[in-house]
C-alpha cells in the first residue's frame, strides 16, 4: 500500500517524539501530530516544547514546516492520511468496574469515534495503528467501533506498542531494541514494517498476532517492574544479614542469562507506566479466572509500596520519631533522572508521609517545576491538610535547600547530586546531620568522613 501521509492522535510523551522521528527519517512523507489541547499544540509549534527530551528540539526544528506539523485540526488531517496512529492516554480507571486496576479507555474510544465519523465516506484504504498501551483485545474494540460507525470503510487495525523510555526517547526511537507490529492483515503489516525498515534493521522488526503484540507490551513492563521489586526485596534482606545490595546485584547481573540492567535498588519505581501496566495485567488475570497469577503480579506492586514505606519509616525512626517543624532537604522529585516528569514518583509518597509528621520539606530538582510537583501531590490529595506554601517549599539552589536542615533525602538519581560540595552543606545543617540515600547514588564513605550519618538501601553499615 502506498503511503503519503501519516497522522497521530495524541501529542504527548509518545506521540510527539515518535512523529518527530518519523518525519526525520521519512522526509518524503507528510507527518501530522494532532491534539485537542490548543496549549500543547502551540508549545509544539514553539521552541518551548511541552516535553524535554535530549535532541528532540533539534529534530523538531529540522522537520517542522517541511514535513512535520502540529495541529488541532484533527478531522482534516485524519481524512487525508493513509496511516493514523492512536497515541492517547490510557490511565488507570478510577471508578466503577475495574477501578484502580483496569485501563480507562475513554480517550481511546473517543479518538476511534472521531476517526470513524471523519472517515465514514472515505474510499481509500486506511491503517489504524494502536500505539497507546492497552489491555489485550482492545484492537477488537477499535474494529467494532469502526465497523459499526463507518460501515463502508476499508481499514486494518495494527498493534504497534512503543518501548521508548522517558529521558532517552529520541535515542530509543532512532535505535530501538525492537519494533513490534501485531495484526491480521499481511499487507498492512508489511506497509508499516517497510516504513520502520528505512532506519531499523529488518531483524529487529518483529511481527506477531494482534493479541500477542498487545500482551507483550504489558508483560515487558511487568517484567521490568518485577526485576526492580525483586532487587528491592533483596535490599531489605541485605540490611538484616549484613550483606551489601550493590555487591549482590553486581554478582547476580554478571550471569549473562540474567543481565545487569534494571537491578539497581531504589526507593521504588515510579513513572506513568509500570504501576498502571502491572495493575492492568492483574485485572486481566482476575477477569479470566487466574487468581493465583493475578496475586503473583500484584505482589510486584505490594513490594514497591513496601520499599517506599520502609524507606520513609527508617527516616522517621532514625530521627527519634520527631519530625515536627524539622527542615528536611529533598534532592530530586522526578521519578527518574533526565526528566521533569513526576507521575507516580516515589518522592510524592515519601513527602506525603513526612508532611503528616509535621516536617518542612525543601525540594530541589533540576527539572521539576513547582507546578508539576503540586499537581502530582494534589492528584493524590496529599496537600489537603497542610499549607503547601509553608511546608512544601521548592528551592532553585541546593545549598539553600539544606540550610538549617536535619537531613538530606536523595530520591532521584540525578548525576549532578554527586558533585555537590557536601562539606559546605554539612556546615549549614543541624547536627547530627543525616543523609538518606534512596538511590545509593552518593559516595557514602566520603560523606561519613565529613561527619554525616548516612543511611542507604540494602547496606548494613
Ligand atoms: C518504561 C519502560 O522502560 C519502557 O520500555 C516503556 O516503553 C515505558 O515504560 C512505557 O511503557 O511507556 P519509563 O517509565 O520511561 O519506561 O522509565 P524506566 O527507565 O523504565 O524507569 C521506571 C522506574 O524504574 C523509574 O522510577 C526508575 O528510577 C526505576 N528503576 C529503573 C529502578 O528503580 N531501578 C532500576 O534498576 C531501573
Automatic annotation (TrEMBL):
Active site: residue positions: 273
An annotated GO cellular component: nucleus
Gene3D superfamilies referenced in this protein's UniProt entry, alphabetically: Cytochrome c1, transmembrane anchor, C-terminal (1.20.5.100), NAD(P)-binding Rossmann-like Domain (3.40.50.720)
Record keywords, A-Z: NAD, Oxidoreductase
Catalytic activity: UDP-alpha-D-glucose + 2 NAD(+) + H2O = UDP-alpha-D-glucuronate + 2 NADH + 3 H(+)
Annotated EC: 1.1.1.22
Protein family membership: Belongs to the UDP-glucose/GDP-mannose dehydrogenase family.
Xref: PANTHER family: UDP-GLUCOSE 6-DEHYDROGENASE, UDP-GLUCOSE DEHYDROGENASE/UDP-MANNAC DEHYDROGENASE
Full protein name: UDP-glucose 6-dehydrogenase
Native organism: Blepharisma stoltei
